[in-house]
Amino acid sequence: MARPDAEEGATVAPGHPLAKGYLPVPRDSAAGKVSAEQQNGPRAGSLLLNGVPRDNAAALSGALGGPQILLAPEEETQARLLSTDAGEETPGAEGTPLPQTALSTRRFVVLLIFSLYSLVNAFQWIQYSIISNVFQGFYGVSLLHIDWLSMVYMLAYVPLIFPATWLLDTKGLRLTALLGSGLNCLGAWIKCGSVQQHLFWVTMLGQCLCSVAQVFILGLPSHIASVWFGPKEVSTACATAVLGNQLGTAVGFLLPPVLVPNTQNNTDLLAHNISIMFYGTSGVATLLFILTAIAFKEKPPYPPSQAQAALQDSLPEEYSYKKSIRNLFKNIPFVLLLISYGIMTGAFYSVSTLLNQMILTHYEGEEVNAGRIGLTLVVAGMVGSILCGLWLDYTKTYKQTTLIVYILSFIGMVIFTFTLDLGYIIIVFVTGGILGFFMTGYLPLGFEFAVEITYPESEGTSSGLLNAAAQVFGILFTLAQGKLTTDHGPKAGNIFLCFWMFLGIILTALIKSDLRRHNINIGITNVEIKAVPVDSPVDQKPKTVILSNQPESSI
């Protein structure tokens, strides 16, 4: 007989066999429903898991009849069944309990804290460049010296990314987060001792420490999203984590021109204003370091997705950092993405660093509006990031979305280039917003696309390499565009960037889309599938639910 409705919510007491051959499943199981056939079905005594008959009902009975595992009381979770690789046989009588996936409410705390200290780090990156003429006059140095206060972030990242990603992969998320937040705090306090005209080297020292902190920050968004968030929210979570860094850049464009106005005829007042900015930054950075130490956890009690559960089931000694790096560089689609991501993000870094100089060339005395244009660029990009993340979570169309956003960024750069010198600053606000919406919105797309085409390699390693490429291109672009801007004007420098972005479009079009992580999450392995919306009818096809082959001692 078909199972009565009254039995749908029934549970199995610990140690008791399954009643009437039924397999109890939570109502909100996300990996697919489990049904039972009549004894005169395809094979007597077999279970039908999403339409696929499986033997060994006794093994399932023993597996599910064991002691129930309760979630930690402080963690509100939603239990789900976990699928393993299609084609594995159901374990015999020695089978183990169904692995669980769960979503923890702590994930929002971790994401918030990370986003905030990433914000402070990004603020310290751009706080000099947006008022470069003010700091140039205060310290009595050249504009190139001030540009290096920004470029040191890019320079430090390249040699330190490999030890930083090794640390993340071997020592874990919490230690990496503490290093990032702690060094950011220390660098901010060192800057407080540099508010004298002969102490430029001290402010450079503090900025160098903040640049080292950035190495332990930029690679974390995709890692935090994968480790803490479920498959239907992972792209949005990554976009939100990147959003914190973008918001810091926006605040860095907005606040320094307001806190440190151009009062070079009154050096004491200028030093006082710089002190207010430095001490305020230090106080916020200290608070966030304390919160990181208190609330930042390594990982949730249960994996949030099938892909993460599969990674956590593998033995730690099986992981090789060197082999992971080699695998990534042998992955041609990833190498193409590495170059195209570096071009786009390097162009963004260059525009952000030189924005003040570009604006003041055509609009003299508009330091405050230069900061507001930078704010418009980044805020528009924040909106673009969130919308792109939501779109990816719904459609999983990674390559198509990445390519379209890349093309629109190129168009935005062309428009910005040829309208900058029209003499109407309101037009620069509009074109800057358009450019920022697509250029900054691209950043989380690159992270998530990389994770998809490189799974099961570490998210921290892939995103770290992407950021390293961005820093290399950022340094080269800033130096080249800065030289072109000084010698031939902003238009020449921007045309230089347009050429490289067009090359990035071609490279992105050549990337083969292989959504490995998404395939694991929907129960498909070693099969190429077409990306479809998460809730589309195609995605509603039954997925086989198979028990893991984990030994009982490993649970």
Automatic annotation (TrEMBL):
<dbReference type="GO" id="GO:0034228">
    <property type="term" value="F:ethanolamine transmembrane transporter activity"/>
</dbReference>
<feature type="region of interest" description="Disordered">
    <location>
        <begin position="1"/>
        <end position="48"/>
    </location>
</feature>
<dbReference type="GO" id="GO:0048536">
    <property type="term" value="P:spleen development"/>
</dbReference>
<dbReference type="GO" id="GO:0015232">
    <property type="term" value="F:heme transmembrane transporter activity"/>
</dbReference>
<keyword id="KW-1003">Cell membrane</keyword>
<dbReference type="GO" id="GO:0006839">
    <property type="term" value="P:mitochondrial transport"/>
</dbReference>
<dbReference type="GO" id="GO:0005886">
    <property type="term" value="C:plasma membrane"/>
</dbReference>
<feature type="transmembrane region" description="Helical">
    <location>
        <begin position="276"/>
        <end position="296"/>
    </location>
</feature>
<dbReference type="GO" id="GO:0060323">
    <property type="term" value="P:head morphogenesis"/>
</dbReference>
<feature type="transmembrane region" description="Helical">
    <location>
        <begin position="371"/>
        <end position="391"/>
    </location>
</feature>
<feature type="domain" description="Major facilitator superfamily (MFS) profile">
    <location>
        <begin position="110"/>
        <end position="516"/>
    </location>
</feature>
<keyword id="KW-0265">Erythrocyte maturation</keyword>
<dbReference type="GO" id="GO:0035264">
    <property type="term" value="P:multicellular organism growth"/>
</dbReference>
<keyword id="KW-1133">Transmembrane helix</keyword>
<keyword id="KW-0325">Glycoprotein</keyword>
<dbReference type="GO" id="GO:0020037">
    <property type="term" value="F:heme binding"/>
</dbReference>
<feature type="transmembrane region" description="Helical">
    <location>
        <begin position="198"/>
        <end position="222"/>
    </location>
</feature>
<keyword id="KW-0675">Receptor</keyword>
<dbReference type="GO" id="GO:0097037">
    <property type="term" value="P:heme export"/>
</dbReference>
<dbReference type="GO" id="GO:0001701">
    <property type="term" value="P:in utero embryonic development"/>
</dbReference>
<dbReference type="GO" id="GO:0043249">
    <property type="term" value="P:erythrocyte maturation"/>
</dbReference>
<dbReference type="GO" id="GO:0046620">
    <property type="term" value="P:regulation of organ growth"/>
</dbReference>
<dbReference type="GO" id="GO:0008654">
    <property type="term" value="P:phospholipid biosynthetic process"/>
</dbReference>
<dbReference type="InterPro" id="IPR011701">
    <property type="entry name" value="MFS"/>
</dbReference>
<feature type="transmembrane region" description="Helical">
    <location>
        <begin position="463"/>
        <end position="480"/>
    </location>
</feature>
<keyword id="KW-0472">Membrane</keyword>
<dbReference type="Pfam" id="PF07690">
    <property type="entry name" value="MFS_1"/>
</dbReference>
<feature type="transmembrane region" description="Helical">
    <location>
        <begin position="403"/>
        <end position="420"/>
    </location>
</feature>
<dbReference type="GO" id="GO:0031966">
    <property type="term" value="C:mitochondrial membrane"/>
</dbReference>
<feature type="transmembrane region" description="Helical">
    <location>
        <begin position="332"/>
        <end position="351"/>
    </location>
</feature>
<keyword id="KW-0812">Transmembrane</keyword>
<dbReference type="GO" id="GO:0006783">
    <property type="term" value="P:heme biosynthetic process"/>
</dbReference>
<dbReference type="GO" id="GO:0001568">
    <property type="term" value="P:blood vessel development"/>
</dbReference>
<feature type="transmembrane region" description="Helical">
    <location>
        <begin position="108"/>
        <end position="128"/>
    </location>
</feature>
<protein>
    <recommendedName>
        <fullName>Choline/ethanolamine transporter FLVCR1</fullName>
    </recommendedName>
</protein>
<comment type="similarity">
    <text>Belongs to the major facilitator superfamily. Feline leukemia virus subgroup C receptor (TC 2.A.1.28.1) family.</text>
</comment>
<dbReference type="InterPro" id="IPR020846">
    <property type="entry name" value="MFS_dom"/>
</dbReference>
<keyword id="KW-0597">Phosphoprotein</keyword>
<dbReference type="GO" id="GO:0048704">
    <property type="term" value="P:embryonic skeletal system morphogenesis"/>
</dbReference>
<feature type="transmembrane region" description="Helical">
    <location>
        <begin position="148"/>
        <end position="168"/>
    </location>
</feature>
<feature type="transmembrane region" description="Helical">
    <location>
        <begin position="426"/>
        <end position="451"/>
    </location>
</feature>
<dbReference type="InterPro" id="IPR036259">
    <property type="entry name" value="MFS_trans_sf"/>
</dbReference>
